[in-house]
Amino acid sequence: MYVVESKGGAIVCMLFSLFFLGTWPAIMTLLERRGRLPQHTYLDYTMTNLLAAVIIAFTFGEIGSGEPNFLTQLPQDNWPSVLFAMAGGVVLSIGNLSTQYAWAFVGLSVTEVITSSITVVIGTTLNYYLDDKINRAEILFPGVGCFLVAVCFGSAVHASNSADNRAKLSSFSNDNKTGEGAADISVSKETNLNIVGTKDLENGSEKAKVGSAGFLIELENRRAIKVFGKSTMIGLTITFFAGVCFSLFSPAFNLATNDQWNTLKDGVPHLSVYTAFFYFSVSCFVIAIVLNISFLYHPVLNLPRSSVRAYLTDWNGRGWAFLAGLLCGFGNGLQFMGGQAAGYAAADAVQALPLVSTFWGILLFGEYRRSSRRTYILLAGMLSMFIVAVGVLMASSGHRKS
């Protein structure tokens, strides 16, 4: 098998992982905003996510001179480590599933910041002790503290932006004499066509400007998950739950590959990163399939009911969902490859993915357009603190002894 041994190689893995893990949520969010059911998107995503693990196992896991390789390890008596890897896949799958709904309520940027920061605060601390303190504590934990501050900024950004949106909708309601507040606004198709903004030359109707009240109403009409009238606490609760799930998958994977608790029998080699990642992805796949098929027939958050047959015939955006699964799969694999070389605590620097997600959120979805000055100041503070935290965390990288 191929083994990443140098600190430089580990950092390269982390940088590619950072880009992949920051991009796939933007694709999933784009599909939800276009009206595709999250259950359909996630079923597509989870198939190619598993495919990425299989590709990594039969390439990196089979090339090079390192032993044992992927196929050699499959029949070995290494089930304690396998179970740790599969437990990590379970919590990651539940966390990813939760964020699908959190993105709709809280927005892509803030969801990624809060979940990633919780992951670092809890997961990095656990990995530091599991890795026998190979990372420099005097650098690592100030970085963890910066991530914790970023959580506070993220919550404040969400609260401020929500207040801005309520003000826009209330003003729109008063101007159009449709009621006293946002809750009374009709979000029917006819209402959208009466919103005057810029001409939509494609269909001849009027299209609202990005960030305006009309834009928010148009978005509500298109999207699969309806958020108007819902408490902001729903979104934040889902986000924090997802963050706790994410904080546990990396320590579980660490235990699977390094057996710090000495659960393997004498003479049985530790799981390689590639074998552990294969089992990790299989459990992630199984949980995702079971939960999403259940959600087809028993949807949550007032989503429309669907079926396996409806899913199989829904090709709208399927290629994008497949791409999201591949990006997430390769991103996770590269994170683990870097973590095995430089320490899983340092590899949590890939939780800088909100920097990439925020870029896509602003570029693709117009997040924070026409918001208040206070929201912009909080957003700048959140991103600045996040950049500092990531730099400090990477500086704590160590080197795992063979």
From TrEMBL:
It is found in: Membrane. GO terms for molecular function: allantoin:proton symporter activity; ATP binding; uracil:monoatomic cation symporter activity. InterPro entries: UPS_plant, Ureide_permease. It is a multi-pass membrane protein. Its main location: membrane. Keywords: ATP-binding, Membrane, Nucleotide-binding, Transmembrane, Transmembrane helix, Transport. It comes from the Eukaryota. One of its GO terms (cellular component) is membrane. The chain crosses the membrane at residues 6-30, 42-61, 81-98, 105-127, 139-159, 232-256, 276-298, 319-338, 344-365, 377-396. Belongs to the plant ureide permease (TC 2.A.7.19) family. This is Ureide permease. It comes from Actinidia chinensis var. chinensis (Chinese soft-hair kiwi).
